[in-house]
From TrEMBL:
Top-tier EC class: transferase
Recorded topology in the membrane: Single-pass type II membrane protein
An annotated GO BP: cell wall organization
Full protein name: Hexosyltransferase
InterPro entries the record matches: GAUT, Glyco_trans_8, Nucleotide-diphossugar_trans
Pfam families, A to Z: Glyco_transf_8
Record keywords: Cell wall biogenesis/degradation, Glycosyltransferase, Golgi apparatus, Transferase
GO molecular function: polygalacturonate 4-alpha-galacturonosyltransferase activity
Pathway linked to the protein: Glycan metabolism; pectin biosynthesis
C-alpha cells in the first residue's frame, strides 16, 4: 500500500510538472500567427499603415476619452481583450487602446490591428520605442534579467531543491505557479512605469492579456478614488484558497526580518489585472522608487522575501494608495479552478483567467473556454491558416 501511495504521489507530481511546462509554452498556432503577421508587415503596405491615422493622433492624449493600456506579446489574446472591450462598450468610439509589446512581436501586433480595424482608436508601441526605458535608466531591469539566482529559479530544474517526500501536491503546485518565466518579463513589470509612458494622461485602466470584458467599463472613470492611486478589487474576502482569500502572509516570507519589520501579515491583498490608475495622483508619490527598492532588496536576499512575480513588490509600493472597488468589476481564478460558478462568470464585468489554465492553451478548462473563444474571429484567414480551431 505504501508503495502504491508513493507511486500515485509521484504520478501527481509528474502531472503538475507537465502542466507547468504546458502553461509556460507558446501554443503552435499562436506562434504561427505571430510569424505570419510579421511576414505580412514586411510585404503588405496595408499592414504597415500608421496606427492611429495622423488626424487621430491628438486623441492619444485626450483625457475626455477612455484610455486602456494592455501589455502583451500574445497577439490572439490582445485581440480578444480589445474585441471584448469594444463590443461590451456603450460608446466604443470613445475608447483608446494603448497596446505595448516587445520588439520581436511589434510587427505582427501592428499588422493584426492595421488589417482588422475596429470602432476604437488603437496605438501599438514596442518597448524599444520608449527612448527613456533603457537598462541604464532603469538598472533594476538589468539586475532582474542577469541575476543568476533568478535565471536558475525560473529556468532551472524545478525538482532540485524540492523535497517531494515532505511536500503535498497542493504545495508543489503553488511552487510551480511561482516559477512561471512570465514573472521576470519586462512586459509584466512595465505597468509600474505608466505615469512616465503616458505623461499627458490623467487616468488609465490597465488590463492583463488573459481577461475578457463583458460589461461597459466607462463607469470606472466615474469612480471617486478619494485621492488614492490604484482602484482594485480586494482579494481577502472570499473563502477559496487559490484566489480570493489572500493576505500579505500568502505572498511574503515573514521570517525575513525586513518583511516582518515593515509589513502586516494580515493586510488585505488586491488584484492586478484590471486596475484603474489615477496617474495625476501617482506622479505625486514615489511608488516606482519604492518598487525598485524592494526588488533590489529581494535580489540581495537571494529571493527569500517573496517568489511570485510582480504582485508582491506592487503590494508594498502601492501600500496606502489602493481604493477598493466592487468585486463585480473583476472576477479572478478562471485559470486556477474548474469549479468556477458559470452564473457568477456571466455577471462579472471582467473575468480573469489568471493561473496556468489559459483559455488559448490545451490545458484550459473546457467549460470556461467558450466565454473567451466567442471573441475570436475563426473566419479570419490568418487564424484559419494557423489552424487555431474553435473548441
Amino acid at each position: 500500500m505504501e508503495k502504491f501511495e508513493r507511486e500515485i504521489k509521484e504520478s501527481k507530481f509528474s502531472e503538475l510538472l507537465n502542466k507547468h511546462f504546458a502553461a509556460s509554452a507558446i501554443p503552435k498556432g499562436i506562434h504561427c500567427l505571430s510569424l505570419r503577421l510579421t511576414d505580412e508587415y514586411s510585404s503588405n503596405a496595408h499592414a504597415r499603415k500608421q496606427l492611429p491615422s495622423p488626424e487621430l493622433l491628438p486623441l492619444l492624449s485626450d483625457n475626455s476619452y477612455h484610455h486602456f493600456v494592455l501589455s502583451t506579446d500574445n497577439i490572439l489574446a490582445a485581440s480578444v481583450v480589445v474585441t471584448s472591450t469594444v463590443q461590451s462598450s456603450l460608446i466604443p468610439e470613445k475608447i483608446v487602446f494603448h497596446i505595448i509589446t516587445d520588439k520581436k512581436t511589434y510587427a505582427g501586433m501592428h499588422s493584426w490591428f492595421a488589417l482588422n480595424p475596429i470602432p476604437a482608436i488603437i496605438e501599438v508601441k514596442g518597448l524599444h520605442q520608449f527612448d527613456w526605458l533603457t537598462r541604464e535608466n532603469v538598472p533594476v531591469l538589468e539586475a532582474v534579467e542577469n541575476h543568476k539566482g533568478i535565471r536558475d529559479y525560473y529556468h532551472g530544474n524545478h525538482i532540485v531543491g524540492s523535497n517531494l517526500s515532505e511536500t503535498t501536491p497542493h504545495k508543489f503546485a503553488s511552487k510551480l505557479q511561482a516559477r512561471s518565466p512570465r514573472y521576470i518579463s519586462l512586459l509584466n513589470h512595465i505597468r509600474i512605469y505608466l505615469p512616465e509612458m503616458f505623461p499627458n494622461l490623467n487616468k488609465a485602466v490597465f488590463l492583463d492579456d488573459d481577461i475578457v470584458v463583458q460589461r461597459d467599463l466607462s463607469p470606472l472613470w466615474d469612480i471617486d478614488l478619494k485621492g488614492k492611486v490604484n482602484g482594485a478589487v480586494e482579494t481577502c474576502k472570499g473563502e477559496d484558497t487559490w484566489v480570493m482569500s489572500k493576505r500579505f502572509r500568502n505572498y511574503f516570507n515573514f521570517s525575513h526580518p525586513l518583511i516582518a519589520k515593515n509589513l502586516d501579515p494580515n493586510e488585505c491583498a488586491w488584484a492586478y489585472g484590471m486596475n484603474i490608475f489615477d496617474l495625476r495622483a501617482w506622479r505625486k508619490k514615489n511608488i516606482r522608487d519604492i518598487y525598485h527598492f524592494w526588488l533590489k532588496e529581494n535580489l540581495k536576499s537571494n529571493l527569500t522575501m517573496w517568489k511570485l512575480g510582480t504582485l508582491p513588490p506592487a503590494l508594498i509600493a502601492f501600500k496606502g494608495y489602493v481604493h477598493p472597488i466592487d468585486p463585480s468589476w473583476h472576477m479572478l481564478g478562471l485559470g486556477y479552478q474548474d469549479k468556477t460558478d458559470i452564473e457568477a462568470v456571466k455577471k462579472a464585468a471582467v473575468i480573469h483567467y489568471n493561473g496556468d489554465s489559459k483559455p488559448w492553451s490545451d490545458i484550459g478548462f473546457e467549460h470556461l473556454r467558450p466565454v473567451w473563444t466567442k471573441y475570436v474571429d475563426y473566419s479570419n484567414d490568418f487564424i484559419r491558416n494557423c489552424h487555431i480551431m474553435e473548441s
